[in-house]
Task: structure prediction
Amino acid sequence: MIPLQAMAMALVAAFALAIVLTRDLVRLALLSSLYALALVVLFLIFQAPDVALSELVVGAVAFPLVILVAVAVQRG
Amino acid sequence: MSYLPYALAVWIFVVGLYGVVTSRNFVHLVVCLAVTQSSTYVLLLAIGYVDRGTAPVFADVPTGTRAVDPVVQALTLTDIVVSVTVAALLLALAIQVQRRNGTMNPDELNELRG
Amino acid sequence: MTRQLRIGLFALSAAGLTALLLWSVAGLPAFGHYHERYGTLLKKVAVSERHTTNVVTATVFDYRGFDTLGEEFILFAAVVGVALLLREVREEGGHARRRDRLVSDPVGLVGIGFCAALLLIGLYVVAHGAITPGGGFQGGVVLAGAFALIYLAGDYRSFRALTPQPAVDFAEGLGAGGYAVIGVVSMVLGSAYLHNFGPFGTAGTLASGGSVPMLNLATAVEVTAAFVLLFTEFLQELPARSGES
Result:
């Protein structure tokens, strides 16, 4: 277990906890994108480029958009 | 130490579950559900990892090179795209709840209404 | 049941669940010492049999192609569910109510310039699925992102003008049905459903892998149409702004 793997895993664990503990919704959208980014780094370290590509496009394009629209409907 | 990735998967699962149970907003609940689902991806990829192995793509390396398991990666990559679609379906339900009941707090929606 | 009681009950059962889960993952082989039988076999034969250098794509679209058929229909069903929930009869001229023009012109210009780049990148990722990391699922979402960028850098009306509803619905059905029909073609040629057929080509070129590029294309069409439909349905739910934006 090299330090790079341990650091990536610690980042993922920290972001997962941050998502659960946050209350503000716009911050939640941003945190979910950051969590997806941490997962991409972890998947690359596990030597899975296809999975990392999948998670990257989903976490950067599709997921934040639907979350922000739901937040906007709640506020509007 | 060599079981740390599996412990990470268990941690993400339980933390996500805690988020679902104590959530005060439907959007937050759906995102926590997605976090819970991502723990299975970490578990699958951690199982398939082979020591000092490279990615199972042989475009520029010779075919006999040591590589990680391709089967778990095939399972995971379709799952990621499908999971965001299901999360969008749940958010569409949350939008309809907001439209009909005016609230997105799960604690305030206790009774079935005709 | 009050909130405190519910959380207390959860804490109790979560402790038990965590103990059980940790005990069960302790029985797995250590990290990095996986005794894979299926994976070793696939890595050995995928390049020589099917002439695809990306073993993961060969697994998704050829060796486990039937599972991908199921996943694709989950996608289809979820998007149909979203359309059923959010689609309603709209009045005429409803689209013109939204005042969402971007305030800064340079941002809009750069964004629209990136649309072309995103389209190219998406098509590249889809086409090279059998050779390098990529494929229909990843490239399809990138292509849908190019359409979303038109909304983000432009305005809602141009986004709707470029994604007419009948065309998107038809493309999604075409993708999902096309995947199932390509499997039937394999049966007509005498082998099992979704068995790989066709000229295999040379490994490392675009036309390699037999039926893998065709299934790849069908998946890309379906995933693009599904996500564009998702974005359309969600963006229609945005509250219309009245007055100055």
User: Anything to note?
Assistant: Residues 3-75 of chain A form one domain.
